[in-house]
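Materials and Methods. Structural model of G-protein coupled receptors family 1 profile domain-containing protein. The 451-residue sequence of G-protein coupled receptors family 1 profile domain-containing protein from Hypsibius exemplaris was retrieved and submitted for structure prediction as follows.
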Amino acid sequence: MVETGREHSPWNGGGAINQGDTTQTPEEEDFNVHQLQLRSSLAAIYPIFIMMNGVVFLLAIPFNSYIVIKTVTTKQAQTSRVLHFLTNAAVIDLFKLIFVLPITLANLLLQNFVFGAFLCHALPMLQVFPIHASIITYAGLVYDRHQGIRYPDKRGVPPLFFTVASWILAFCSVLPYTGFIAYVDLEALRGPRYQNLGVCFVDQRQANTEDYLRATFFLLFLIPSLIIMFLLMKTSWELSFQRKVAVACVCDEYCMMRKLLDPSLFPAVQSEDFEYTNHQPDRKTKNLLVDVHPPGDLYQLTYTRDRANSEFLETRSFIGVDCVFCTNELQRTDQRRITIIVMVFILSWMPINIFNFSIHFLADSHNYPEFLDIMNLSLTWLGFLSTCFNPFVMYAMLKDRVEMSESCHGKDTDTVQTSSQSKATPSRMASPATGRRNSYTPSDSSGPVYA
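The predicted structure was written out as tokens:
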């Protein structure tokens, strides 16, 4: 997105500022240098790009603003670690739309740089900063989610820490840009007629410029993207494993029991595979009874919760059946949505990052093909397009949490836990296959389940 001022008149054939000739031709005297000049390659098609970026601007700002306000003001979202991260990502998207999109579009459309010395040095930082902040936020999200699902009893780092860290690290990462940007004041070079006009470009004559550009591309985009994709796959595998080993799940709250036995929450376990017999709890004894009939009636499990001694009793033996929390399907749904959000961001911004990385090393900045202007604008628009998508996914996640909370009498769906009035002491029965005793012990309230 950063333009280098490559075809402005002060450049001579050797790529240096021509300071010897300050005379003006009659054509230059008649030409209004302060008039905005479109790039010649975009003169015929620039309205299309203005319209495309305008649609993104007008749609994404209301959507992101609404979802940020809705999330902040919704009680169920305030305890969700996932929505904390995604809210920060939405705020960063608003920053892109309000402060970066308009000036970036103008800079890419115009041939003459009219924004002054301050924006010359600030513009590259302004353009790259929110991208780095977003990738750091998503990296923190997938890492925190993986740790929360893999080690549910461990207390995670507060999401606020990741939020502050993403902004600070992103800001620090773009500070070196100020040393690699050069601004040439045309008023001092060509006279008062060029007041407030200049040339802004990346000074690649400095020894560390290429090293810095390479480092930012690899360390702050490519490598984090690969790590994010790896953690997404690993977390999905973990959730799939938890689901496969769970044949039955018994929760303390009857509403959670009712939801567990709803086949719509477990699409892979349909009625033709498993038969559920739900005996509703007696209003006096509060006993819960669940019968599970696997395919072929290889075995049957019956769990009974006795209110008197808080035991879960097995009436028949079984092999290798573990219990997972009733939020497993919500976690899997969230995982799919998070994967979509993150992959849309990576795939949207990857092309323009590769383009900007390549253009500094492969293209001659003084013989710049005109078709690259169109490609630059198109790829930049593709990156901003991702800001229109995230609010819809966030709204679906927020809606799920509100509905789950209402059906479970206000229990936090991100930290649903199975607990008993006292530590459960389940009966043990010998497994016919192993001869060892199997037991099912509901988790106490020592730690939350990440959602």
